[in-house]
């Protein structure tokens, strides 16, 4: 088991109820405040996601949030988790993240993903007046993006004379997000670090995915070592019962999504009332989904994080926490970030 586990925040910018936190008027401002708090707690990275046309998540432009968060913090690495590359030109993404790296050298991460981050309507609007791209182009987009940022475009490539400004030597840390063996193999082939999204599909997320990723990396003869991160869903509170209540918002949301239904994030008390009317099969589905999250008081959550890090052979864990209330989300990260002598979770600010 790793001796030190570095924690990353994966912030999906959930839409919290209006008026609950009047001093923070919207999800963007909440992300900035959460990042500042998590930096003080010693988290290693702060990543923001990309979603479009969503009533639940308000993060359509990770590059803007990254710039704002990096400007409001001092040390924590800031990045995307991730840019949905199928919507964009690799050249434009390379220019944006090259500029971010120039402004905040040594602090920028670029994570990319294959998923659209929204529905077909959003994908069509993002592509207009051109046609939507399909996932078949993603491997070439990823390879091209990496070559542009690392200034390794072959001389015979049509874009070999492109010049990305400003000139500097601080390339962003490159990650590929995925929840399956296909994404892992591609990350290894391209030569990007892998962030494995267990929170999306815990049943299908197994340690052998990292093994296959390592094999693909070695087969491609990339220099250096492959990088691993496991992304989990977690809810931490002062008591296990309170944590289970808070987690209900995200569990119920996933349950409804599996049934093709979408609505805003519900208060945990509303979810509790709806659960009281569940059939036996519905409650069984709810409990099965709950088992895919880390839920409990701090000692329990930290032990489970250590166990997952050991099982998957990684020393970086990203944590996704989607609650109805911002203060509950902030408190969950605070409890996970506070040092605990019984665990090996790293807190640089206490060393």
What key attributes describe this structure?
351 residues; alpha/beta; TIM Barrel; 8-stranded parallel β-barrel; 9 strands; 15% strand
Explained architecture:
By secondary structure, the chain is an alpha/beta fold. It has one domain (6-240, 297-350): TIM Barrel. The chain is 42% helix and 15% strand. The protein contains twelve helices and nine strands. The chain has an eight-stranded parallel barrel with strand order 1-2-3-4-5-6-7-9, surrounded by eight helices. The radius of gyration is 20 Å and the shape is globular. The two termini are 20 Å apart. The model has no long low-confidence stretch (mean pLDDT 92).
Mean pLDDT: 92
The residue ranges in which pLDDT falls below 50 over 5 or more consecutive positions are none
Tally of helical segments: 12
Q: What's the CATH H-level homologous superfamily?
A: Luciferase-like domain
Evaluate the radius of gyration: 20 Å
The geometry reads as: globular
Quote the distance from N terminus to C terminus.
20 Å
CATH class bucket: Alpha Beta
- Number of DSSP strand runs: 9
Question: What portion of residues belong to β-strands?
Answer: 5-15%
Widest sheet, order of strands: 1-2-3-4-5-6-7-9
By CATH, the architecture is named Alpha-Beta Barrel
Tell me the helix content.
40-55%
Number of domains: 1
């Amino acid at each position: 088991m790793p001796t030190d586990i570095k924690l990353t925040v994966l912030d999906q910018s959930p839409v919290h109820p209006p008026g609950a936190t009047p001093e923070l008027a919207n999800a963007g401002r909440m992300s900035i405040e959460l990042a500042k708090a998590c930096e003080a707690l010693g988290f290693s990275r702060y990543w923001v996601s990309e979603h479009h046309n969503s009533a639940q998540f308000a993060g359509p432009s990770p590059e803007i949030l990254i710039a704002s968060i990096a400007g409001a913090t001092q040390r924590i690495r800031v990045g995307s988790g991730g840019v949905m590359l199928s919507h964009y030109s690799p050249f434009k993404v390379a220019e944006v993240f090259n500029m971010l790296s120039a402004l905040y050298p040594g602090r920028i991460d670029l994570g990319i993903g294959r998923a659209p981050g929204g529905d077909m309507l959003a994908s069509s609007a993002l592509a207009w007046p051109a046609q939507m791209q399909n996932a078949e182009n993603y491997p070439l987009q990823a390879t091209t993006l990496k070559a542009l940022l690392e200034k390794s475009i072959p001389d015979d490539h049509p874009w070999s004379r492109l010049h990305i400004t400003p000139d500097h030597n601080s390339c962003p840390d490159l990650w590929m997000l995925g929840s399956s063996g296909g994404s892992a193999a591609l990350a290894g082939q391209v030569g990007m670090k892998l962030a494995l999204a267990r929170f999306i599909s815990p049943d299908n997320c197994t340690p052998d995915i990292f093994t296959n990723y390592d094999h693909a990396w070695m087969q491609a003869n990339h220099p250096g070592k492959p990088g691993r991160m496991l992304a989990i869903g977690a809810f931490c509170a002062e008591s296990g019962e309170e944590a289970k209540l808070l987690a209900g918002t995200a569990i119920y949301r996933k349950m409804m999504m599996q049934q093709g239904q979408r609505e805003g994030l519900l208060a945990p008390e509303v979810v509790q009332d709806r659960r009281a009317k569940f059939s036996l099969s519905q409650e069984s589905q709810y409990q099965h989904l709950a088992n895919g999250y880390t839920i409990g008081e701090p000692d329990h959550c930290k032990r489970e994080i250590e166990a997952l890090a050991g099982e998957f052979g990684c020393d970086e864990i990203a944590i996704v926490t989607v609650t109805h209330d911002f203060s509950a989300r902030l408190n969950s990260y605070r409890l996970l970030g506070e040092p605990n002598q019984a665990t090996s979770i790293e807190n640089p600010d206490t060393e």
